[in-house]
Each structure stands twice: as C-alpha cells, then as structure tokens.
C-alpha cells in the first residue's frame, strides 16, 4: 500500500487536481477528477465514506464524488483521499492496484470576521479568475463560483474550467459554493453538469449553512423564454423555476414552523447566491422574462428570509444596487452585489468580489487579477 499521510504531499499520478470540497445542504461533497479508472473513498478520522452506487464502488467515471457529513469534517479538520487504480474490472476476480492516499487539511468556516471571494462569468478562463481570487491569500475562508464558469457545455473539456479554478484557489483546504449560470445549460454536456458539481436531492438549488452564515443558492437557469430558437427545443426552464419556487416556499415553511434553515440558532448572516440578478429588469425585452415569478421570489425573500446580501454575476459588470435604487425593479430584499468583469480576448484579466463579513458590516471590494481595487463599498449591518 502506497500511503503518504504527510499533509498536502504530492498528488498521486491519477489525480488531475487536488480534491474540491463543495458545501451543499448538510454535507460536503468532495470531488476528484482522475485520469484513469479508479475506486475512491474518503477517510475522516476513523470513518470512511465511499463513492459508490448502491454498494458498488464506481470506477467508470472521470469525476469522483464522495459525500461527508459537515459535522464530521468540521470536527476532524482533515481528510484522506484513498484510491485504487482498476486494472481490469471483471464479473469475478477484478484486478486493482495498491491503495494510494492523499491527506489534506481543511479549514471550516468559523470566526467573527470571514473572507469570501466571488467569481462568476469566467467563460473558460482560468488564469484571471484564479489570480483575482488570490486576493485574500491564506485568509480566504470560502470561494463562491457563481455561474458561467464554462463558456458553454458544448464541449466536455469546458467543464474542466470549474475544477481547475476551484482546485487552484482552494487546494481542497476550504469549502466552495457553486451556482449554475445560463451558459451552463447549453450544449450536449449540460445534462452532465451535475456529475461534476454539487446537487442536493438532485437539484441545483439548495441551502447550506457554514458556521454563522446561511446561504440560499438559487438557479434562474436560462435567460430567455424556453421557445427561443437559440435553445432548439432542448430546455424546460419555466417548469424548473416553478419547482424551485415551491422549494423556496418549503424553506420558509421549515424555518417558520420548526426553527430550521435561516431561523436556526447561531445564524448571524443570510446571503442569497444567484447568477442572474433577477431583481433587475433587462432593457432588452428578449431577456426580460419571468417578471411575475421573479417579483414573487423577491417578495418571499424580502418578507420572510430577510437576507443581508445577494451575490450575482451575469452582467459582466461590477456594481452595488441598494434597495430602491435604479436597478431595483422588483422589490429587492437586500443589497445586491454584481461582481464579475471579464475580457474574453484576455484570459489573464478578471474582476471579482472580495467580501469581508463581520458582525457590524459587510465590506465589498471589486478586485482584479493584479489585486487592484477597482471599487469598494461598506454595507452597515447596524439596526
């Protein structure tokens, strides 16, 4: 057995990157891209968690996924990835290699002051977003990937942009939140996106608690009507958004009836993550869809959940929209931060959002790949 328990030792040859630890629901979903057929499991303390299909270890995959309960990894603060290469898989007497391991430390989200970096609209660029997200250095607590990380899902390799950015920024040591964008619904591999990104009960919308932070990840899916000729009859986003509406209502019901979700003890900050800033009307009628539904979403958030911040991308711009401002067309529930600026001709350039949350305020800096601050605003949380 090739076992190296040294923390963050060199990666085994079959690893295409470090693991990525996504936070979703009440678990961490640890993903690992591999170059050869392998079996994989995760050891946390004296417990093991497997990438299996109903008791059968998976090997015919290029991306492994293992779910670990949050409380288990938060307590241990380290995990070990275990793999075996599959040399020949047969009905009887399969041939596999020795166990190889990789151990990583892990930093749960905790503390009174937290640092988050928001990346959206990478559109296949890796260098720029990775350099921008290095703004906080080792002080970074959480990475948010908020949609359109691939240019589209028409090529399988485009989806690799997601793990490349996530692994290079976090190195598997801090959690990642992922939200789908409209470009992520396009192409032959769009239906495979859930194989390499987190889902909760099969859905790309979900809530997650990290320390004193509670997040609601919303998925607006496409930005034009389903019948738009661009989609070629391949989407049903309107029905998807109605299921999502029922989910938001269910979250509110659980919070108000049982004291769960955002009403749970210890929650200090509530944040909405959505690729599309749906509280804003588009000046182009083609994109100005679901006005009634998005107005209802805004009402539910404003009257029940009462978040402090909503993080968005999509517009390839950076700005802060306050309640009642010119961008508030549907009754914003809170301050909306749009934080993604790109240059498709220069993959080394990117602007994202460097967010610092404390008990008294939320500081937002728009920073580029050279760590220049392009804009800054502080949102007071005092009553």
What features would you highlight for this structure?
alpha/beta; 2 domains; six-stranded mixed beta sheet; Immunoglobulin-like; Purple Acid Phosphatase, chain A, domain 2
Describe this structure in words.
With 383 residues, the protein is an alpha/beta fold. It folds into 2 domains: 86 residues, Immunoglobulin-like, CATH 2.60.40; 267 residues, 4-Layer Sandwich (Purple Acid Phosphatase, chain A, domain 2), CATH 3.60.21. It contains 5 helices and 22 strands. The strands form 4 sheets. Strands 1, 2, 7, 10, 11, 12, 19, 20, 21 and 22 form a 10-stranded mixed β-sheet that branches. Strand 10, helix 2 and strand 11 form a beta-alpha-beta unit. Helix 2 packs parallel to helix 3. The mean pLDDT is 96.
Map the helices and strands.
Elements: E1 20-24, E2 27-33, E3 38-44, E4 47-50, E5 52-53, E6 56-57, E7 63-69, H1 70-76, E8 78-88, E9 95-105, E10 114-119, H2 127-133, E11 142-146, H3 160-170, E12 175-179, E13 206-210, E14 213-218, H4 237-258, E15 269-274, H5 291-305, E16 309-312, E17 318-321, E18 335-339, E19 341-342, E20 350-357, E21 361-368, E22 373-380
Parallel strand pairs: 1-12, 10-11, 11-12, 14-15, 15-16, 16-18
Antiparallel strand pairs: 1-2, 2-7, 3-4, 3-8, 5-6, 8-9, 10-20, 13-14, 17-18, 19-20, 20-21, 21-22
What value does the average pLDDT take? 96
Oligomer: single chain
Question: Which structural class best describes the helix and strand composition?
Answer: alpha/beta
Helix content: 10-25%
- Extended strand count: 22
Biggest sheet descriptor: 10 strands, mixed
């Amino acid at each position: 057995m090739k076992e190296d328990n040294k923390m963050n030792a060199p990666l085994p040859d079959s690893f295409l990157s470090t693991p990525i630890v996504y936070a979703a629901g009440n678990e961490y979903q640890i993903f690992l891209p591999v170059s050869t057929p392998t079996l994989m499991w995760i050891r946390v303390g004296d417990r093991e968690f497997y990438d299996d299909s109903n008791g059968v270890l998976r090997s015919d995959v290029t991306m492994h996924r293992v779910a670990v309960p949050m409380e288990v990894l938060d307590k241990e603060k380290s995990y070990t990835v275990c793999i075996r290469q599959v040399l020949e898989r047969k009905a009887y007497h399969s041939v596999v290699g020795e166990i190889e391991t990789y151990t990583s430390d892990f930093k749960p989200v905790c503390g009174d002051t937290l640092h988050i970096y928001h990346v959206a609209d990478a559109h296949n660029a890796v260098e720029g977003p990775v350099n921008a997200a290095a703004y906080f250095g080792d002080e970074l607590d959480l990475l948010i990937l908020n949609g359109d990380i691939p240019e589209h899902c028409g090529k399988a390799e485009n989806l690799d942009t997601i793990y490349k950015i996530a692994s290079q920024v976090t190195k598997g040591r801090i959690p990642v939140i992922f939200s789908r964008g409209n470009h992520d619904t396009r192409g032959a591999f769009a239906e495979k996106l859930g194989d390499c990104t987190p889902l909760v009960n099969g859905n790309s919308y979900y809530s997650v608690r990290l320390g004193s932070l509670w997040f609601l990840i919303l998925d607006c899916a496409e930005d034009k009507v389903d019948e738009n000729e661009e989609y070629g009859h391949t989407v049903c986003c309107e029905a998807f958004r109605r299921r999502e509406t029922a989910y938001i209502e269910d979250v509110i019901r659980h919070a108000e009836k049982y004291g769960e979700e955002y009403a749970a003890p210890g929650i200090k900050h509530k944040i909405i993550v959505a690729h599309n800033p749906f509280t804003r009307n588009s000046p182009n009628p083609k994109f100005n869809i679901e006005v009634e539904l998005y107005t209802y979403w805004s009402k539910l958030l404003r009257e029940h959940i009462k978040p402090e911040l909503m993080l968005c991308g999509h517009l390839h711009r950076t700005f802060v929209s306050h309640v009642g401002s010119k961008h508030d067309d549907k009754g914003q529930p809170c301050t909306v931060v749009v934080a993604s600026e790109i240059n498709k001709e220069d993959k080394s350039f990117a602007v994202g959002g460097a967010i610092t949350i404390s008990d008294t305020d939320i500081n937002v800096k728009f920073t580029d790949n050279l760590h220049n601050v392009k804009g800054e605003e502080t949102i007071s949380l005092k009553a």
